[in-house]
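User: My collaborator sent over this chain with a note saying "see what the structure looks like." That's all I know about it. Can you take a look?
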Amino acid sequence: MTQLLASVMNVAEADQALQGGADIIDLKNPLAGALGALPSATIRAVTQFVNHRAPVSATVGDLPMQAEMIYRAVAKTMDDGVDYVKIGFWGATPALDCMKALEPLTQRGGKLIAVLFADQQPNLATLFEFAQAGFTGVMLDTANKQKGNLTHYLNNSELGFFVKQTQSLGLINGLAGSIGLANIPQLMILSPFYLGFRGALCVAQQRQAVLQAHAVKQIREAMLNCKKDLKIA
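Assistant: Without extra context I'll predict from the sequence alone. Here is the result:
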């Protein structure tokens, strides 16, 4: 069953996300970019509040592709107690030196999720390198939240290739990027591990507004209905 990842900013939003039925609590600051990082104190507070009721992930920020900087940020976020750490790999070809620099952390048991950006023409042929470096998963997102959602940049054939390729490599996969209710039927057909949401869960569909439980529940129900329809088909 495809899971629902809800991106939250604080304990109050994590509470709303859990009440609405989110499967994964994702920590990021939408006021600070596509993968804006939250303070360690907030990450620790949310992780303690969730208390293993759901997996918790956190982003390390919109960092430049500098291996030492990324290593330090990932190590710090791992120490905050989250289950998964998400790292943005910007541009068409992921920085192999950054990938390699993180291998000691994956060997230490760190569960790292690489984030590729559909609006930056990602090279999906590089998925093998992430598996080789010990990453737990790879997800697709969008860097610019003002210029179309995930499906504006990649069609279902391309997204389907991504899902199947990651599955064949033993990687978790996720699809996100300003997606909402209207995109759920199209994406559920692909059976990704999770779909990630922020704006669709917030007041007036604005990603910088407050997340609400009833919006999470609406998305979850739409996903469940799609699953039932797929079984019937």
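A starting point for your reply to your collaborator: The longest strand covers residues 3-8.
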